[in-house]
Amino acid sequence: MSPTPHPAQAIAAAAEAPLTRAQALLEAERCLYCHDAPCEQACPTHIPVPQFIRRIGDGDLRGAARAILAANPLGGLCARVCPTEELCEAVCVRNTQQGQPIAIGRLQRHAVDAAMTLPASTFFTRAPATGRSVAVVGAGPAGLACAHGLALQGHHVVVFDAREKAGGLNEYGLASYKTADDFAQREIAWLLQTGGITVRCGWKLETVAQLVELRNSFDAVFLGLGLGGTAALGVPGEELAGVADAVDFIAQLRQAPDLARLPVGRRVVVIGGGMTAIDAAVQAKLLGAEQVTIAYRRGPEAMSASQVEQHWAQTHGVVIRHHLAPQALLGQDGRVSAITLAVQQEVDGRLQPTGEVETLAADQVLKAIGQKLALPWAESAGLAIQGGRLVVDAEGRTALPGVWAGGDCVAGGRDLTVEAVEHGKQAARSIHAALIQPATQPAAQSLPCAA
Ligand SMILES: Cc1cc2nc3c(=O)[nH]c(=O)nc-3n(C[C@H](O)[C@H](O)[C@H](O)COP(=O)(O)OP(=O)(O)OC[C@H]3O[C@@H](n4cnc5c(N)ncnc54)[C@H](O)[C@@H]3O)c2cc1C
Ligand code: SF4
């Protein structure tokens, strides 16, 4: 029998292999360079897909990367984590002609990875300094994209983040097999070479007074806070040891120096039906859990994880069970030992318990039932909230003058990395337009940045 691989090896093996040069050229040749390309329209950041693929076909990787990064400064990470099967690749005309879309995500990664061996200044040139400064709170994809867009316009940007490292969920949330080789940090380091951005980690915005201070000290503020709060199951036993939030589990795993020492249950139950549930379940399996079950309260078609993701989990030995809603967590000596789940049926689209109950043995239960905005003081600061998220207009302006927001923390989004990047990009355009309009300029009251 072959020895059990170290979890780090298992995770590395699960990471998607990059295309070789020959594979990339062959794949690029399949592209039809469609006029009004549907793939480009479907990309939230509108990367000029046919243009960059043509350049790969011509052997011009630098030009390809330039086209990608001008539209999406986090194009390397998005190439790894975007659900391309639901976005650009879903609408590729090669689906109908050859039953196989162009591997747009993998081609994008091929070009950007090659570009990242060159200095970022080769791709981005900053405009002369404007003397204006902007505070960006949150160093996730939304904040980073906004900061980058503003820095290119010559503004000075200070990015504040509560965590130790920048990156948001790119660093702490996305599955490690999607972002192997410390890619999130490498991409940030590369982007920061452009200049004009100071990152201050370990600073948390938690009072109205702090926001007032930021508004007084900077010419504009962007909030890219993501969703820091987690939803509770609301069933007995939730406080038992071994019951954890799936995002915290992933964060712990992403930051663990030695994965072999990370405590992982033998029988793990993950509650939820989205990307977080899939990521947590697959990683638990790769870390050595014997039995991993995802329990979801509705049917497969209602899961927010795509079919590709569901299949990915199943091919890694995760069992997905449907129409099961958690009822109670049972424990022994203060530690979870099982979960009871009420069997559900859908009547006129509404869930109803059938009266049957199933019990699954579990020594670890991971909750992946959604996150929520952790900004209890938002309304008292003058920010509008709808459905638990910040309300913004089409340009990302909040109800507070001089304050913009974007990414997962705003209402109406799809909670995807690429969409957070687009929000940040759009907000940067809007902030820049506001800062350069003499009539609407706020008084010049910038403090020296990152003092
Ligand atoms: C487990 C998981 C897996 C996912 N997988 C994918 C995937 O495969 N593909 C995909 O496209 N999307 C995925 N997503 C969604 C994606 O990660 C998010 O849509 C994206 O990260 C949102 O970016 P953001 O910048 O809005 O927020 P975040 O990435 O959450 O960043 C917010 C930042 O703000 C900081 N912050 C929060 N509050 C404060 C405060 N008060 N003061 C200072 N700093 C603060 C945080 O520390 C964080 O760094 C996943 C999400 C999760 C949870
Ligand atoms: S739709 Fe497909 S074939 Fe057409 S440009 Fe986009 S990737 Fe190429």
UniProtKB/TrEMBL annotation:
InterPro entries referenced in this protein's UniProt entry, alphabetically: 4Fe4S_Fe-S-bd, DPD_II, FAD/NAD-bd_sf, FAD/NAD-binding_dom, Helical_ferredxn
- One MF term from GO for this chain? iron-sulfur cluster binding
What is the top-level taxon of the source organism? Bacteria
Q: Which residues form the 4Fe-4S ferredoxin-type domain?
A: 22-53
Q: Which Pfam families match?
A: Fer4_20, Pyr_redox_2
Q: Which PANTHER family match?
A: GLUTAMATE SYNTHASE [NADPH] SMALL CHAIN (PTHR42783), GLUTAMATE SYNTHASE [NADPH] SMALL CHAIN-RELATED (PTHR42783:SF3)
- The protein, known as: NAD(P)-dependent oxidoreductase
Give the organism, scientific name: Ideonella dechloratans
